[in-house]
């Protein structure tokens, strides 16, 4: 039976997909795409819990704020509650509890059974959460609210979050409100504050506490506590079934209370919230992709991946404490370094309204903060892993026709600032040479030499990315009729060539991007190694082999550098051969998922994302299909270890989704690389348009090579000429009439 817009697609979503093996997915409650509240458990086992969740360990609380799929260091885990049985003599000591059984989750719902006999059920809305507790009847029931609660970091990199100060006020009717202020985390953020407002539905006796570490300085029946010490409240109940409602906001606790009363009025049932959340996801995400596919495993992979790409960023429009604006505001970008490669392109297809808002938000952050972010969380830019990749996102939107309410004059000026003005150094101990907060820290070398010297960290990977960033400026300048800028930035986009050492040798191939000194000499470099592959090295999270395939905007120059199409194909196919990465075990030592691959190609990290598709440029579309399909079928599943690396805010899932669709985008260009769709499907493009993808003649597992392609019935490409498709044909803008675009693929 074909899936339709009335189908409950949430039945196919596996919430624990990618929660283990470094995937770091958040399995808790997210009531709608880009929701502010992400309510779920916080676990402790001595390792970093990036999303709060870990497959093993003790529960330390259930908190309202989380990220999903990120690495580096944990963020949030704030505004928490922890249920406890028996007397609570000291709420500052370890009150964590093992789980009695495996957690249960479905879209809009999460439950945990603790070894203490407590069952916890969770539901949520955009700004509020519902906690339902079932306590053992023979034991005293308590809920501890610890304002100092955050997700800790154990990596020793100086990225751990800090509680700065807090306050809480309680009343005898079960109401409490207050705020907590925190700093640091992965983006090295300064102080930020979240306000909360909570209610319990049962009569309550309460105490407030204050202290340092595990030493109490105060624990009494007063009605408030505040200061730089740990503060909080302990709420005790005479009944075994207790429900709590909590709202959050970033400007005032009064507004948090208002959101709570609007979104979860007193008496709201948990199942009502679950049903509403499922309706949100069905209508806003899942019903936009319909198919006649009947294989349950495939449908679960499809809809679980769609879910995973819509958890962050967080839409906090109207909730920005730093400035007032009529523009949209999105926070929790983790990170554009991950997302620009294929995620934002799919977001434009499936969520055109939200996508335009996200573009406007990036530009508005530049207006008020000075630079567009490459990453942002808790209302603060940071950290930029390579280039100024918001430039790529804006260029992609521009060339694909996003206009609406976007102020493109301002957008281009934001891009120019990235390209011309070095940001102040934020003195990150891991990369103290220049700013990694925003912008392009190595810009002086880029402008002076046309390459980046080893005086800057990540010199080679930055150079490759700066080239793509400048190509993005070229694209927008060209579209705006600014010929002088277009020529200037096109020339700068070719600077990656200055890092190409034709004499660098590896595996019988010559020519790789390598470090280059100020005097013009190349630094000796093993192309199979990136050293520590981190902030202080010449290459960030990928080897010279991988980065040498990354100048996608200048691909024909790259093909020429490698000896022509045939040699390019041989070189490219080499990265997919097993056991050619003996140094891989030393890479990314902090992440087992990134260290275990025996190929040079790394399916678990973004610099390799486009590589399987580059065969198209050398006339071997069949190899693009073969290699990309193998990666998708081998490294992805709906199991907890079903992602090959960090989800990276859904980047991994969107790579898989494009593979299912049978296309791959080139960011900042109007070209798609053709692979082979897994099944026929319809994509709702908005504006009453649907992209209809029909695949016939093949089997998605064994006979998937494209024999012919027709776009809208007018274009027919055959055999090895099936390489590229124009964006405007597959995704026409609204003004191009009412006819739905149709892509028909014959496979064998």
From TrEMBL:
Renumbered residue ranges of the record's region Disordered: 420-439
One Gene Ontology term, aspect cellular component: nucleus
GO biological process: carbohydrate metabolic process; glycoprotein catabolic process
Location of the Glycosyl hydrolase family domain: 255-714
Domain of life: Eukaryota
Biased amino acid composition, Polar residues: 423-433
Domain Glycosyl hydrolase family 92 N-terminal: 12-248
InterPro entries referenced in this protein's UniProt entry, alphabetically: 6-hairpin_glycosidase_sf, GH-type_carb-bd, GH92_a_mannosidase_put, GH92_N, Glyco_hydro_92, PNGase
PANTHER family: ALPHA-1,2-MANNOSIDASE FAMILY PROTEIN (AFU_ORTHOLOGUE AFUA_5G10520) (PTHR12143:SF38), PEPTIDE N-GLYCANASE PNGASE -RELATED (PTHR12143)
Name of the protein described by the UniProt record: Glycoside hydrolase family 92 protein
Organism: Heterodermia speciosa
Higher taxonomy: Eukaryota, Fungi, Dikarya, Ascomycota, Pezizomycotina
